[in-house]
Amino acid sequence: MMHYICQVSVVNGSARRKVPDGKMLSVKIEYDTVIKKIELSGDFFIHPEEGITDIEDALIGSNPFNEKEICEIISSAVSLNHIELIGLTPDNIAKTISMAIR
To answer: What's this model's pTM, rounded to 2 decimal places?
Structure first.
């Protein structure tokens, strides 16, 4: 009997876009079937500043191909960590992540 091991390789992606109010959002992502590493940056504001790390950490291990789930994870991280997003929304971030994996 032969056994086959299927290994999924990690892919890198990135995207930049202006969200509807004109703020720039950049996403760098490493993923296979789940998000391995993600970096969000741009000219938006997050209060407190370390909230960006809370959002990024919440996304690790999630399915990068499910935009609705990504948006829910971001919304939950924002709520749980009392983060204020200024110049972007969880939906803006989720859409940019979707662009980065295409």
So the answer is: 0.89
Q: Does a structural domain hold residue 9?
A: no
d(CA 14, CA 62): 17
| Residue 61 zone, left/alpha/beta (φ > 0; ψ -120 to 50; rest) | left
What's the CA gap between 77 and 55, in Å, rounded?
6
Q: Which residue type does 87 have? A: G
Q: State pLDDT tens for residues 58-94.
A: 999 999 999 999 999 999 999 999 999 998 999 999 9
Could you tell me the sign of the dihedral formed by the alpha carbons of 64, 98, 41, 55, in that order?
negative
Question: How many separate domains does the chain show?
Answer: 1
Instruction: Answer yes or no: is 56 within a domain.
Output: yes
Beta-carbon contacts of 88 under 8 Å, excluding residues fewer than 6 positions away, are: 19, 21, 23, 25, 42, 44
Mean pLDDT of the region 47-57: 96
> Which of 33, 5, 79, 78 lies closest to 93 in space, CA to CA?
78
